[in-house]
Amino acid sequence: MPIVLYDTLTRRKREFQPADEECVKVYVCGPTVYAPPHIGNARPAAVFDVLVRLLRRNYPKVKYVRNITDVDDKILAASLESGESPEAISQKYTDVYHEDMKALGVLRPDIEPKVTESIDAIIDMIKHLLNKGHAYEVEGHVLFDVTSYKSYGELSNRDREGMIAGARVETAPYKRDPADFVLWKPSTGEQAGWESAWGRGRPGWHIECSAMIGKHLGETIDIHGGGIDLIFPHHENECAQSFCTHQKPLANYWMHNGFVNMGDEKMSKSEGNILTVQRLSSTFPGEVIRYALLSAHYRKPLNWDSSILMRSLRELDILYNAVNLVFGEAGPVDDVDENLADGVFLQALEDDLNTPEARGELFQLAGKIRGETKTFERRRLGDVLVASGRVMGLLQSSPKDWFSKDAGAKIKESIKKRDEARKRKDYAEADKIRNDLAEIGITVNDTPTGSEWYYSRDKHLHDV
Q: What's phi and psi for 116, nearest 5 deg?
């Protein structure tokens, strides 16, 4: 069965046909490194990790690029607030991002360019746009002239009024058109900056990805991915400036994942409702968080509530129990050939990354293992289960290692620290720990005989 992907530009599912079957080219917008990543940042990393794993099953080579934005106004603001240099801020949170993604089982991209290492390519692209009449210089800025690109708005399917009113579109008196966007802007003495024909400055946000794509993947790539919030203006602007530079489309397929919502609100730093990967992984194994991030179809919103991690933990316990029945606590002695992955499971992933349906097939396999009495057939099913799980980046541990990652033990440790805080009358710390636990669905009750905790949804009490 061919891989079918939903293309944001054409707004329909399309059979995936790479320009070169010997080398598939994929680019995904990476993090801006000014703070620890939250689970909203982690969702595209996990989703496109599954996509790349699937593509690598079907094609001899996949060249996967995911960037690091290490110069940005948000980094400068974090630097001013903390007193650390912008370089120290960006390096610190790049390291945190790498650690967090490793915990989630997200593979590193083949190439991970940084903006600060791509300035020459960015400047060259801006020069091309100026020379071709698609950009203009004014008051130390270089701006893209959106009226020079007749297809502007096609990707986001926005009309003129919708584009001007769109989020993150800066208004400025020096713009010829309100929708024109910055390619280069001046830097003050304390801000990061590079010398250019237009003075000392730094790149605008949108030009960075286009330049890095051109440098590392070429003029047109197969798949460009990112969060749904990037469709406009970021990806719309990438389309415009890249086409005007090369007279070719930037990407043949555009893929976007939905938001992670906390209740009725999108998770975001500005809303103050974020859950960081670091915070969650202090209690739950990274594979649980990854499993939760893949629990909804990638194009739909993922509604994150206090039950999602405990559900994911229990479901993974079922899968690891099935692995244990076949292979014992050590798991497979040799690497399992991923070519043994189940056909129905693969069909689900090949149908626009339908991870919920693929997970359902993993449970079907686990149920067959539990009901199978023939040793040979049970072993075959075990190989299929492990091979299938690994296409999604799951079932990477041995059952022994998995069941030693006891979330309950970590919860008990948090409650022990809370009890100690209460004994020394540090009620602010005790309340903080209680609130942290409440955010992941754990309710703590103080009783005359000590603390008790229970998972808020099922009310199953646990002695501390």
A: -65, -20
What backbone phi and psi angles, to 5 degrees, belong to 250? Answer: -70, -40
Task: Report the C-alpha gap between 269 and 31 in whole angstroms.
Answer: 14
The 3-state DSSP class for residue 226 equals strand
Dihedral sign, Cα of residue 322, residue 326, residue 331, residue 335:
negative
Here the tokens at position 244 are 């005007």
Instruction: Identify the bridge partners of residue 185 per DSSP, sorted by sequence position.
Output: 202
Provide the Cα torsion 91, 262, 439, 100; round to 10°.
Answer: -30
Report the 10 Å Cβ neighbour count for 14.
Answer: 15
| Three-state DSSP state, 273 | coil
**267 CB contacts (<8 Å, ≥6 apart)?**
38, 39, 40, 259, 260, 261, 273, 274, 275, 304
Residue pLDDT, tens place only, 391-444: 999 999 999 899 877 666 677 788 888 989 999 999 999 999 888 888 766 788
**Distance (Å, whole) CA 142 – CA 184:** 5
Q: To 5 degrees, how large is the angle CA 138–CA 232–CA 180?
A: 15
pLDDT in tens, 328-339: 999 997 788 889
pTM higher than 0.70, yes or no? yes
